[in-house]
Each structure stands twice: as structure tokens, then as C-alpha cells.
Amino acid sequence: MWYSISCFLLMVVVLNVGNGEPLVPALFIFGDSIVDMGNNNDRYTVVKATFPPYGRDFENHSPTGRFCNGKLATDFTAQTLGFTSYPPPYFNLKEKGSNLLNGANFASAGCGYYDSTSKLYNLYALGARRIGVPTLPPMGCLPASITLFGFSSNKCVTRLNNDAINFNVKLNTISQNLKNILPELNLVLLDIYQPLYDLVTKYSENGFFEARKACCGSGLLELAILCNKTVIGTCVNASQYSGMDFIQQRQQTRFWPII
Questions:
Q1: pLDDT level of residue 251 (50, 70, 90 thresholds)
Q2: Using an 8 Å Cβ cutoff, are 168 and 1 in contact?
Q3: pTM for this structure?
Q4: DSSP-derived secondary structure for the chain
Q5: What are the φ and ψ backbone dihedral angles of 142, each rounded to 5 degrees?
Q6: Where, by residue number, does the polypeptide cross the bilayer (predicted)?
Q7: In whole angstroms, what is the distance from residue 254 CA to residue 259 CA?
Q8: Which of 51, 97, 106, 222 has its CA 20 to 30 A from that of 66?
């Protein structure tokens, strides 16, 4: 399913470029709106997050281009690894070259999935040895998916979730094959499907108030430019919502609806 592949592509690559103070020397991120830190800010596209309520709970309470009210999952990853700052958006780097050795974010909201942009062999040849690739989440549990394909039901769309499951099985097979043929490759498949599915279907048990709706406007469909400061209904406390606009929950952070 092309939609599933394109909308939830994420790759975190750690290059062995030398000894650094954090647990790893450099962090490189590839993906779409889930991990876009501002690469789209000055691009010719309507897929931007440069206006409120995006960034409402981030540093300085202002939008940065993150499609979220607060920190991204990769922001937390950088902190956990010991970095004192986040990998900068690639387009924000005034000078490339050696500056890239400190890490960078290449994610772009609304991007597609093409073989030419996701070849692990090329990354491996550049020195990547530690790579994390998340599975697809339960696509049928997105508020927009339920609204568009749920046929008046408030339950997750089984067909879309099955598409994600089938893709994840194939992704696991490919990952195992790559580890068998590429020496010293530490490729980790991060299962986010089941935890997020449990979070939505058992939301009250996990301390959340709302699972069906997202945290912007009606919560049923709004995303990107439709999620703005003029939209009526944006929630006050995003941490109460587990309705999957994905990956970040709790910790004062919730995704606004994503692309």
C-alpha cells in the first residue's frame, strides 16, 4: 500500500565517524512529517508546520517546522543518546561538508517512498553500521482513516491495519537478509505497531482521555494547513489524547495530525 509506505517512512542512522562524547558520534534521520524538524519551512510546498498550534509546547512555545505540538520522537532519541542539541534540518545548514559529520535531519513532510532514496547499501558504504527502522503503525487507527474508511464506525479499520501488518512482516524478512550479508551491520527493527495499537484500543488503561479524535479542530480529519490557530476545537491539554496522530504520546507531547 503506497500510502502506508510513504507516510510513515522513518530511518535513524548512526554513523561510526569517530569517538564522541554522546553515546554515539552522529545521528542522521530520514523520513517524512513524523520527523521533519523544519526542512520544509522554506520549500515550495503547502506541507508546512510554521504556524500555531504547531510548536505550542516546544521550546519558546513557537513553531519550528515540526508537525507536532512539542518534541518529536527523534528529539527524545537525541536526548537519550546524550546530545545537547537536535540534529539540524539539512536545509538549515549554511555549510555542508564537514558539518554533516555532526549529524543532520533529512526528513521532509509529505515525501514519498522511492528505491533511490532508501538504499541501505549506499548508507552502509558511507559508514553506517547502526540503523533503526520502525515498523508501520496501525494505519487503520488514524482518526482520518476511521473517518474516511470506517463507514460510520468509530473502530480501527481492519483492512488498513492488515496492510501495515503484511508490510511489517516483509520488512522484517528484508532486515534479516541484510544483516546476514552485510558484515558488522547492526540493523534494528523497532516494533511500534503493537504498542500504539494497545495505546489506542486500551487508552483509558494507559491514562488517556480520548482515543478516537486527534487534538486539532474536530479531531476527525484536520491536518497540515487545516490545523491552524483559526480552527475551533483544538484541545487545551494534548497529553490527554492518544488518538493516533502517532509516535509521541505523553511527556507533554502529542502529534498534531500528520501528513
A1: very low
A2: no
A3: 0.81
A4: -HHHHHHT-EEEEEE--S--SSSSS-EEEEESTTT-SSTTTTSSSS----STTTTTTSGGG---S-SSSS--HHHHHHHHTT-SSPPPBGGG-SS-GGGGGG-EE---TT----GGG--HHHHHHTTEEEEEEEPP--GGGSHHHHHHHSTT--S--HHHHHHHHHHHHHHHHHHHHHHHHSTT-EEEEE--HHHHHHHHHTTGGGT-SBSSS-SSTTSSS--GGGSSTT-TT--S-GGGB-SSS-S--STT--PPP--
A5: -60, 135
A6: none
A7: 15
A8: 97
Q: Which grid coordinates are listed for 78?
A: 537525541
**Per-residue H/E/C for 152-205:** CCCCCCHHHHHHHHHHHHHHHHHHHHHHHHCCCCEEEEECCHHHHHHHHHCCHH
Distance CA 147, CA 88 (A): 35
